[in-house]
Input
Amino acid sequence: MNPIIPNQQPNFNFIEIIPDNVDDFKAKNLEALPILKTGTTTVACKIKDGVVMATDNRATMGIFVANKNAKKLHRIQDYLYMTIAGGVADAIYLIELLKAETEIYNLKNEKKIGIGQSARLLQNILYNKKGFFQVGHLLGGITEAEGPKVYNLGGYGSLMDNDYTSQGSGSVFALGILETEWKENLTLEEGMNICTRAVRSAIIRDMASGNGIDLVAIQKGKEVVEKRYEISDQDLIELK
Output
């Protein structure tokens, strides 16, 4: 059997065997399952001696809200976090793969893998499959050698080093806040405020984003700050 090449998927997902009589069977091709688009909003930005990342909590299947408590912000290492956007199965698989690979590197080399090294490792995985994984990731963290780093990775293996960035269906709205308000050497409070407001602006306008905000701040020599904000309809109306 020839392998299925990424981007050349078959026209059907299943073969159903239907008995015509006890001695005869025939195969019937079923139509392909529909591909339902998913949405999200994830943001990240550099601050003075650190990085702030934030996501919404809504997972969708087309226009259906599949989950109101989706976790899109994940710890890879104590100093390295990643957000997910796109297909949930693909994104979670890559999260677990990167966790394992970075941990193996740290144990084998008896030193911490860099943020840039981790980003290029994931880039190679994505590029080798060229669109097989329907995802968008933000990777952020800080090391002594690199300082704060924020990377944006696309499903085809693109890799961009940014001061601030966003992924997902609501990113166009979030970038409006980041573009106008980000500046160098933000304080922790300023960075958290900008990222939270960026995700909130997407929640207001993007139907595929919503149901709260997760936020993490990774700083040099300090404990990781993790927060969760619940957002009610009234909060959105009053822009709190």
